[in-house]
Design brief:
The chain is an alpha/beta fold. It folds into two domains: 499 residues, ANL, N-terminal domain (Rossmann fold), CATH 3.40.50; 126 residues, GMP Synthetase, Chain A, domain 3, CATH 3.30.300.30. The chain has 20 helices and 32 strands. It has an eight-stranded mixed β-sheet, sandwiched between helices. A seven-stranded mixed β-sheet has the order 7-6-19-18-20-21-22, sandwiched between helices. A four-stranded antiparallel β-sheet has the order 23-24-26-27, with no helix packed on it. Strand 18, helix 12 and strand 19 form a beta-alpha-beta unit. It is globular and about 75 Å long. It starts with a strand and ends with a helix. The structure holds 5'-O-[(S)-butoxy(hydroxy)phosphoryl]adenosine. 5'-O-[(S)-butoxy(hydroxy)phosphoryl]adenosine binds next to helix 12, strand 21, strand 22, strand 26 and strand 27.
Length: 646
């Protein structure tokens, strides 16, 4: 890249090959964003064209209503690159965690056959259009096959992160009323076999799940319920290798993906067939500049939206190869990820700042032998990337050659909404850049006025939003309205992020303004953690805050009010167990403090801000408005004692 006045630009060589390299595209999109998206939509395959591109009955909106589509037709037989051209090329490269195990490569044709076979099998098991299908699977090709098989027959997939606890699985199956679950016997993680089937058995209790399909992956022993359980390989074996695509309305559900809610009940975000397909295809093509020969490694798990859109749908719609890896990127050696990049000739690498900071900590010396000659583009997602991690990534992985797209989006947006385009730029470390063409993002102050450059405010998205923005919280329109469409009225999408623009209009994301924290890029609300802690019978109340962490960005710290008789060590362990059981290991707290009281306002609101400032050593401000200022001093002592210990 070329550096000028602290900004980075793509080289002429990169520009020449890029799909877009002229800022004209922004002008065109700005003139008429609806027309712009319509033009993009026209390039995909529709069974029937839409009647109206965008309709708005605030807060509800629709894109391409009247149109009929199936995302899998656009991946397979109607792929934009031409089916004959792509059918023999690798759709998926799967890298198992055990080093001695071979990679598995699935061509487009092979993937299509397996998708159709599973789709036929699902139908025989009674799955109908619109039914929700739970998917609780690790990073294996069968996860993609399951998602696409659902999409092929119009069933709605509900993928649940395989490291979530049985209880977290249960609530997701309950709120989406899933009838069937696809899982695996087990999978490898850091050299161990995780018995996923036993978690699944526990998780389906008290749900409507009547049937469980099990992929044989790790060969570990599993409990078997002869009435409810089906081996994947047995049910697909004799199925036909083709099935007609279900003709879906643009606004029919494609999938539901839950994100952490504030009360312990996750928010089930609804994504639809038409808009999501357009967004997934075009953001991949223009932001990652997907070309037919590209091999993308997006490190996100399928359990998160990044895994849905950029490890599965977007690369496949673009007819390129997606690499998926089962295990931990630093297992069994710290630079396993670099080996994977090199060996498989990956051209685009998309990961999270937490991973980059971890690679950095292992030391750049490990990378000296890696030239990464095939890499041409890097991406970052999930949390703010600081300048030093950006520069490290740029130098040691991108070898100062590859542009870095720092992409801002959310589970709710379905696809990337803000990032500079690689053939245009400019790129500035720690800034996500410009809104995608056709997306109107603004930064507003408390009163709804547009913030001038350098002034921090709330990031919002204005009509017509983007086709891929979610359409609601499953069966909960009130929560949808309250969470996203009430801060600035029903026509303004509230992102819950604080941000500002620099004088060039480039956007920098500061972080969440709600109770969500980003732990290693994973979004968890402190409310959900508190609900887990409060389920301890002897804990009367608790407050959870996120504190800065060198590698993970943020980590949770728990303050729990406990007046019982057990030892502090014992109770702390029980609190950690509670979190592990209700959510899973991703949310484990860095520290648990047992306290007598929590700082509260006179109306009884817990002042988490005060607790956070005890860690960041900021000025505590005026404590006289608190109902119980004396507890702050006591908590401070506890924290300091803890800090001295380490
Ligand atoms: C939140 C959404 C969709 C990506 C995976 C996370 C934060 C996301 C960035 C970025 C700074 C970012 C925001 C956002 N975030 N990307 N490039 N720079 N912050 O999806 O779990 O729904 O989290 O992640 O705070 O609101 P998610």
């Amino acid at each position: 890249m070329i550096k000028k006045d602290g900004l980075y630009y793509p080289t002429e060589e990169f520009k020449k090959k890029a799909w877009v390299s002229s800022p004209e595209i922004y002008k065109e999109a700005k003139k008429n964003p609806i027309k712009f998206w319509e033009k993009l939509a026209e390039e995909l395959f529709w069974f029937k064209k839409w009647k109206k591109a965008f309709q708005h009955a605030p807060p509800f909106f629709e894109w391409f209503s009247g149109g009929q589509i199936n995302i899998t037709s656009n991946i397979f037989e109607k792929n934009k690159l031409g089916w004959e051209k792509i059918k023999e090329k690798p759709a998926i490269i799967w890298v198992p965690e055990p080093v001695e195990e071979q990679e598995r490569i699935l061509s487009y044709e092979n993937l299509f056959k397996q998708v159709c076979q599973l789709a036929n099998a699902l139908k025989k098991l009674g799955v109908k259009r619109g039914d929700r299908v739970g998917i609780y699977l690790p990073m294996i090709p069968e996860t993609i096959i399951s998602m696409l098989a659902c999409a092929r027959i119009g069933a709605v997939h509900v993928v649940v992160f395989s490291a979530f606890s049985p209880q977290a699985l249960r609530i997701r199956l309950q709120i989406t009323e899933a009838k069937i679950l696809i899982t695996a016997d087990g999978y490898y993680r850091r050299g161990k076999i995780i018995n996923l089937k036993s978690n699944a058995d526990e998780g389906i209790k008290e749900t409507n799940v009547e049937k469980v399909i099990v992929v044989k992956r790790a060969g570990n022993e599993v409990n078997w319920d002869f009435e409810k359980n089906y081996w994947w390989h047995e049910i697909v074996e004799n199925e036909a290798e083709f099935i007609e695509p279900e003709i879906m309305e643009a606004e029919d559900l494609l999938f539901i993906l839950a994100t952490s809610g504030s009360t312990g009940i996750p928010k089930a975000c609804v994504h639809v067939c038409g808009g999501y397909t357009i967004q997934a295809y075009w953001t991949g093509r223009l932001i990652f500049d997907f070309h037919p020969e590209d091999i993308l490694w997006c490190t996100s798990d399928f359990g998160w939206i990044t895994g849905h859109t950029y490890a599965c749908y977007s690369p496949l719609l673009n007819g390129i190869t997606t690499l998926i890896y089962e295990g931990a990127p630093d297992w069994p050696i710290p630079e396993r990820w670099a080996q994977i990049l090199e060996k498989n000739k990956v051209t685009i690498f998309y990961t999270a700042p937490t991973a980059i900071r971890m690679f950095e900590k292992y030391g750049a010396e490990l990378l000296e032998i890696y030239k990464f000659e095939n890499l041409r583009l890097l991406g970052s997602v999930g949390e703010p990337i600081d300048e030093s991690a950006w520069l490290w990534y740029f130098k040691n992985v991108g070898k100062e050659r590859c542009p870095i797209v720092d992409t801002w989006w959310q589970t709710e947006t379905g696809g990337i909404l803000i990032t500079s385009l690689p053939g245009i730029g400019p790129f500035k470390p720690a800034f996500v850049g410009l809104p995608f063409p056709g997306v109107r993002a603004e930064i507003l102050d408390e009163k709804g006025r547009i913030c001038p450059p350098e002034k921090e405010g709330n990031l919002v998205i204005l009509p017509p939003f983007a086709p891929g923005l979610f359409r609601g919280i499953y069966k909960d329109p009130e929560k949808y309205l309250k969470t996203y469409w009430s801060q600035y009225g029903k026509k303004v999408y509230f992102t819950s992020d604080a941000a500002y623009r620099d004088k060039n209009g480039l956007i920098r994301i500061i972080g969440r303004v709600d109770d969500a924290i980003k732990v290693a890029g994973h979004r968890i609300t402190t409310g959900e953690l508190e609900a887990a802690v409060n389920s301890h019978p002897e804990i009367t109340e608790s407050a959870v805050i996120g504190i800065p962490d060198e590698i993970k960005g943020e980590v949770p710290v728990v303050f729990a009010v406990y007046h019982g008789q057990k030892s502090a060590e014992e109770v702390k362990k029980e609190v950690v167990d509670k979190i592990n059981q209700t959510i899973g290991p991703i949310a484990l707290p860095k520290e648990v403090y047992l306290v007598e009281d929590l700082p509260k306002t006179r109306s009884g609101k817990i002042m988490r801000r005060v607790l956070r400032k005890l860690f960041t050593r900021e000025d505590l401000g005026d404590l006289s408005t608190l109902a119980n200022p004396e507890c702050v001093e006591k908590i401070k002592e506890k924290i300091q004692k803890g800090l001295r210990k380490s």
